[in-house]
Amino acid sequence: MINLSNFSSIFIANWKLNANNDFINDYYQKLLPRSNSCVVICSPSIYLNKLKINSNNLFSGAQDVSFFNEGAYTGELSSRMLLDNNISFCIVGHSERRQYFNESNKTINQKATNLINNKIIPIICIGETLKQREQNITFEILLNQIQESIPEISNKNNCIIAYEPIWAIGTGITPTLDQIEEVHTFIKNSKIINGDLKILYGGSVKPSNSANINRLKSVDGCLVGGASLNVEEFNTIIS
Ligand code: PGA
């Protein structure tokens, strides 16, 4: 398993349902990972073996994994198969999967457990909707997601949390720096997590806001969607 304590920041590129062979070739010619940061490129699964990795700071990650370990589950990919293909990280519980594929906290917990057991670091996404924020139930929602989706075997070496307010994903709107700091501090202080898990911020991270977000004491890096598809923009974010 990758030693997370080696890195001052962690940056995840979430390409979602985008990319092709030409895109990948061009991307890796231009990508400039910095030595003290961990950079993880999460492509659609079919391209994972085409991604370049090194043993220092550039890794590949999956965007999802099966709840099951093996058997008659057509279309699925298991944690062990990811391990077998040198995949070091995997996003789980992204809000798009929760919304479009009906993923529950319980399923996410099982996926994350399988990943940890196979020495792959899950990046578990949590976050509130705009309606929930307006109803002042953000912390309640996050606490429930933490309680139910973060496995008991998780610790700061084998698991990462990504706080992604759903209203900030792909909208160009971000919480204020104070709001990000407030939520991250709340998560770090929540007694249900074993130790000090790294917490990434995600949701409309761009070159123009990434430095300020990353400078926050409670932010350990970023999960980047749209802006990670532009390698120049992503280079600025990880610099
Ligand atoms: P965004 O997506 O950066 O395009 O807002 C982030 C994510 O969905 O992980």
Task: Give structural notes.
- With 239 residues, this protein is of the alpha/beta class.
- The chain contains nine helices and eight strands.
- The longest helix is centred in the middle third of the chain and has 13 residues, at 105-117.
- 2-phosphoglycolic acid binds next to strand 8.
Q: What labels would you give this structure?
A:
eight-stranded parallel β-barrel; 239 residues; alpha/beta; single chain; 8 strands; binds 2-phosphoglycolic acid; globular
Helix content: 25-40%
Bound molecules: 2-phosphoglycolic acid
Average pLDDT over all residues:
95
Give the helices and strands as they follow along the chain. EHEEHEHHEHHEHEHEH
Strand line-up of the largest beta sheet? 1-2-3-4-5-6-7-8
SS content category: alpha/beta
Overall geometry comes to globular
Beta-strand proportion:
15-25%
Described by strand count, sense and barrel closure, the largest sheet is: 8 strands, parallel, barrel
| Rg (C-alpha, Å) | 16 Å
Q: Provide a count of the helices.
A: 9
Number-wise, the strands total: 8
Distance between the termini: 25 Å
